[in-house]
Amino acid sequence: MFQKVAIIGGGAAAATLVSELLERRTPKPLHLTWFAGSAQPGRGVAYGTPSDRHLLNVRAASMGMFVSKPGGFLEYAQAANPNVKGSDFLPRRLYGDFLRSRVDAAVANARQFGHDINLVPFCAQSLVPSSEGVTIGYGEGEEAHADAAVLAIGSLPPRPLAGVQDAALASGRYVTDPWPYLAAAESDDRPLRVLVIGLGLTAVDVVLELAARWPRARFTALSRHGHLPEPHLAAASAPSDDGNDLAEQMRDDPNIRTWLHRLREATDNADDWRTVVDSMRPHTQGLWQELPDGEKARFLRHARWAWERARHRMPPKVASSVASLEKAGRFERLRGRMQAVSLRIDGDLDVVRRETGGDATVTETYDIVIQTVGLNTDTLRTEHTLMRQLVIDDLVTPDRMGLGLAAQPDGHLLDGDGKPRGNLFAIGSLLRGALWESTAIPEIRKQAQAVANMLVK
Ligand SMILES: Cc1cc2nc3c(=O)[nH]c(=O)nc-3n(C[C@H](O)[C@H](O)[C@H](O)COP(=O)(O)OP(=O)(O)OC[C@H]3O[C@@H](n4cnc5c(N)ncnc54)[C@H](O)[C@@H]3O)c2cc1C
């Protein structure tokens, strides 16, 4: 058992692991050091939004924090409002409140099991694992020691896309990270022209929020295929079956072309295609591990976009708000690829885009361009201080496909020689290369439970 454990990260994953550990009776008391980056951790990127327009994309009944209590969030929400149903898509702000209340309760109860926790409101800046334990650097040259450490840092800060001129970045009109921008955006009555690059759930959140705060603004979204995420059904529908047969057929022939064919067959025979996609959820991590590297690369190049829009769906209310904006002529979608963004003399941005399926380029002018191109998990090319240090010092191995860090499926990180480190773990987005499906609460709570088991066994 590791008695002194360092947990690094300030979001839902770290909060879940801390709570898992503190609520356990262990042979010896635990001493946790939580490098949380803030004094009020838990909400992280997803649940830090104060806007009630930003809804969970998972139904309330499935958002519990612990594997042993998947309905925990629903109970919390119903205690405040008995009309809430398990099939509702509730505000992410409320989920942030839930996470904070669970963490506070776990910290308050820790003493009854003899545990203690030291919350460090700084980011961990360096980490050196050795056979004796781990040494973590933070603050103004301070150090802490632990027997083991867990990285729960979410995805890495977004980097600007290729083609964006430095002057455009420096102008503040090209936004690389939408969340701090949304948090600070004030009401504005000007007829702003806004381009959003990318068309996933974050793009939708950005457009809906700014459309409300900027009533005369018009929004354009640019993506390779120009499709919105699919909507959830209004009523919850159970998965078509346990997915075992389909997963078995896929395992027999692990290549993407066959898999897409099998999926298409199954969805053609289902009442609603979503039930088939959902039936795959418990199998996705195992199937991913069986896929040869070349097939994984093919999936990322050709099928990822289609899978993501089917898997990460919009709540029906969000889908209808977007449809209303489109109908009102305030939101349009374009198919293409951004080639260059430059700052004009008048302070606006010129955006050159190439249209999908052709060579033609078009240049258009916008007031603001906001990049929303999905999670950044490229650990080899990042400005994240801790990750840079770990990679440069060869203490971890970047995933070959840019999907986080090389790791065992159970969360053990691999060292520079590809061997598992006994005392260094990760949960969440950094495990995308090992598991693919590794970012949402239902997966994170399982990982937190499994890592907690390894830490205290
Ligand atoms: C907009 C959005 C909406 C989502 N909605 C849902 C949903 O409805 N349902 C669902 O299941 N999933 C949803 N997700 C998936 C989401 O990723 C997870 O649910 C969860 O929030 C991930 O938490 P995390 O702690 O891994 O990452 P994060 O939320 O990114 O938290 C990581 C935290 O660690 C901090 N950190 C980074 N480096 C350090 C360091 N060196 N030291 C200390 N702290 C550090 C970061 O600043 C950050 O606060 C959503 C994701 C996003 C982005």
From TrEMBL:
Superkingdom to which the source organism belongs: Bacteria
Record-annotated FAD-dependent urate hydroxylase HpyO/Asp monooxygenase CreE-like FAD/NAD(P)-binding domain positions: 6-155
Q: Which InterPro entries match?
A: FAD/NAD-bd_sf, HpyO/CreE_NAD-binding, L-asp_N-monooxygenase_NS-form
PANTHER family, alphabetized: BLR0577 PROTEIN
Q: What is this protein called?
A: Pyridine nucleotide-disulfide oxidoreductase
Organism the protein comes from:
Luteibacter yeojuensis
